[in-house]
Every structure is written in C-alpha cells, then in structure tokens.
Task: inverse folding
C-alpha cells in the first residue's frame, strides 16, 4: 500500500488506558477490572515505558500531537500526580503543542470531584464525565455508583474548573417512555454542557445485561420506540444549538471532541495500556497494534519486553479505505471520497457502486460532487447502510 505523503499531516493522538473501576457496570464491555490494591506508581511506570517504546519504534518523536486522551476504566480514580507524570513523559517523548486537547474521563462521585482541580493542575484541559442519567432509579438500574444530585454537583465543579466539559448519557432503557426521556433530555440540556455524548443502551456480549436478556430476565426497548427517542434527541439538541456532528455526539460550534475526530477521520493514534488499540500509518503502511488485556499480564510483559503488544497487524489498502469510509460516515459532514482514495492509495474495490446508487436513489445517502454523507432520514439505519456500501 502506498499511503499518501500528506498522511504525515493527518491529526495524531495518544490514547492512555487506565483499566480499573470501582465496580463493573452491567452494560459495559470495556476492558475494565475491579482489582483491589492497585500499585498506581508501578502501573504508571509501565504506561510510560510502553509509551516511550511505541513512540520510538514507530517514529512519532517529532509529530505534533493534536490530542491526548485518558480513558478506561475510570482514569479519575488515578492520583493526579500519576496523570502529571504521564503528561511530563509525553512532553519529553513527543511534540505537544499549546493547542493540544488533553481529555480525562471521570465518574461523578463526590470522591472523584474532589480531585478535579488536581487534574487541571496536572495538565488536563478537557473533562468527559460519565453521568449516564439524571434519574436515580435509572442510575441504580445501570449499576452506577453516584446519585443524580451528586452528578449535578460534580458537573458544576468541573464546569468551574475546566473550559471544556462533556457529559455522557444513556437512553432507550427498558421501559423508558418517550415522555420520560423527553423530560430528562430537557433537564440535560439545561446543564450548560457544550458537548454531549448521548448513547442508546445496547446489549454487548459478555456483559451482565447480555446474560440477563438471554435468560429472559431483561427485555430491551422495542426498536421502533428506540428510533423515536433517537429522532427526538436529534431534533431537540439541534434546537438547543447542540447539533449532532456524529451519530451519538452533539456539540456547540468549535466544541467537538478532537480526539474522537482522529478516529472518525482515519487519523493516527497510539494506544497505550492494557487492551488498548492503536492505528497509524508507518513506512507507507497502515498498522494496527493490540496489547495484552489483563492488566497484570500486560504489566509483566512491559517489565520484561518494554511493551505489552500482542499483535502488530499491517492492513491492506482496501482495509484502510473501508475504515475511513465506515468511520467517516458516522459524521454528519460525511466523507470526501477522493481523499480516501488519495490517502490510502486504493482506488477501487472498497465501495459497492450498486449499493451507493440504490441508497442514493432511496434518499438514504446524499452524494454531492466528491462528498458522501448519510441523509437525516437514514441516520437510524447507519449500520445497515455502511454494511451495504462495504460489501
Ligand atoms: S465505570 Fe465506565 S468503564 Fe467502568 S465498568 Fe462502568 S461503564 Fe465500564
């Protein structure tokens, strides 16, 4: 594969995975563990070791960083001093510009809210808070550790400390009525967030909810009702100057999450920590790295080898083109088809022209010159549209 030389100009980010949580939420399939007695210092040391290894092995020393993202797990359980150590190591290893977005995911318990000022001093400049609901019964159902009141207080504290704050919510819960979600969404929009991630509850294999549903003990919301709630969400958020820029993400102008845009626009990122995935262009190839998932085995590997990588897969050009199409169509602005062809060096076999013509004629896709995007009426059919285009 001959990747375009301009690829070096594509945005570059670093994702750091902190894999520990206080309790496993029943809907969550992330690589998160409830291990007791975590040696934060040793774990931080391992993250820095793997970071230095990846930066040097794949030659990212001089590439300007657009974003650093601490995800998990629950990185707000980290001691702010550990976050600072990692950020100092990144500054030493790479080129961190003054405009670099540095995000940390936080849970809104009182205990974690007390640490927010420490995270700001450590260098975090954007906070993403996992509130999930403003209804205590829904929070209990979702297995969350905070109350709605506690979350609202934590959010206010965050908004006083950080210029950029995002909040996550989950809707389309079993038995949730459209009216109940309408009322909750109005309350959410009154919180003054400039960025919201609003996800429908989905069943992921391996989760507690998944097995409950298999045993007939949990009934998910009917598809038609979930679509109704999705359409209402799009409409109300747009009306409140928080239009969707991605299927589940809404932002005021200029407040979009730069880190996630790297994923959706086929940029480059390093994935550091247990179970982290990285994707980037290196020596004219698109590479995907994966690391060991178990935190302890990963740490052992880093200690022995300097990294916890278990696979370094080199993608063919058509895979990279499919990735760019699949991720880019999640964005309301869509994708530039020529840019995909130029960047990946792949001009055919990644787009099903028959499906493209049919879906455009059905009004589910909009093609204007080189731009392809999903039409508003096709948004809730996104997965199926993308699947048909990639066949
Ligand atoms: S706190 Fe977040 S990462 Fe941890 S189990 Fe719950 S949803 Fe998953």
Result:
């Amino acid at each position: 594969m001959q990747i375009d030389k301009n690829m070096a100009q594509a945005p570059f980010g670093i994702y750091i995975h902190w894999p520990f949580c206080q309790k496993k939420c029943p809907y969550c399939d992330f690589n998160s563990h409830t291990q007791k007695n975590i040696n934060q210092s040793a774990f931080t040391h391992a993250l820095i070791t793997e970071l230095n290894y990846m930066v040097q092995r794949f030659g990212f020393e001089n590439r300007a960083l657009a974003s650093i993202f601490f995800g998990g797990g629950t990185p707000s359980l980290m001691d702010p001093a550990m976050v600072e150590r990692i950020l100092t190591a990144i500054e030493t290893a790479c080129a961190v510009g003054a405009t670099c977005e540095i995000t940390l995911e936080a849970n809104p318990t009182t205990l974690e809210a007390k640490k927010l000022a420490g995270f700001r001093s450590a260098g975090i400049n954007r906070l993403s808070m996992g509130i999930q609901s403003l209804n205590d019964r829904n929070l209990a159902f979702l297995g969350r550790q905070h109350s709605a009141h506690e979350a609202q207080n934590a959010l206010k504290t965050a908004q006083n400390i950080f210029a950029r704050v995002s909040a996550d919510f989950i809707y389309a819960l079993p038995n949730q009525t459209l009216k109940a979600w309408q009322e909750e969404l109005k309350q959410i929009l009154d919180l003054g967030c400039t960025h919201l991630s609003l996800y429908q509850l989905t069943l992921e294999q391996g989760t507690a909810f998944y097995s409950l549903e298999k045993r007939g003990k949990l009934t998910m919301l009917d598809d038609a009702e979930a679509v109704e709630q999705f359409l209402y969400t799009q409409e109300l958020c747009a009306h409140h100057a928080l239009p969707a820029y991605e299927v589940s993400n809404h932002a005021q102008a200029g407040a979009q999450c730069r880190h996630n845009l790297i994923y959706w626009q086929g940029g480059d990122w390093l994935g550091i920590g247990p179970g982290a995935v990285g994707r980037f262009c290196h020596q004219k190839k698109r590479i995907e790295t994966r690391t060991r998932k178990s935190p302890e085995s990963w740490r052992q590997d880093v200690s022995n080898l300097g990294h916890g990588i278990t696979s370094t897969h080199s993608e063919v050009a058509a895979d990279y083109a499919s990735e760019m199409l699949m991720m880019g169509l999640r964005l309301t602005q869509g994708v530039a088809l020529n840019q995909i062809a130029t960047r990946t060096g792949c001009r055919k076999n990644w787009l099903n022209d028959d499906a493209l013509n049919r879906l455009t004629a059905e009004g589910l896709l909009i093609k204007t010159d080189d731009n392809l995007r999903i039409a508003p009426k096709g948004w809730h059919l996104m997965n199926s549209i993308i699947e048909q285009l990639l066949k």
About this structure: Residues 21, 24-25, 28, 30, 32, 72-74, 107, 130 surround iron/sulfur cluster (CB under 6 Å). Residues 40-57 form the longest helix (18 residues). The CA atoms of residues 11 and 262 lie 6 Å apart.
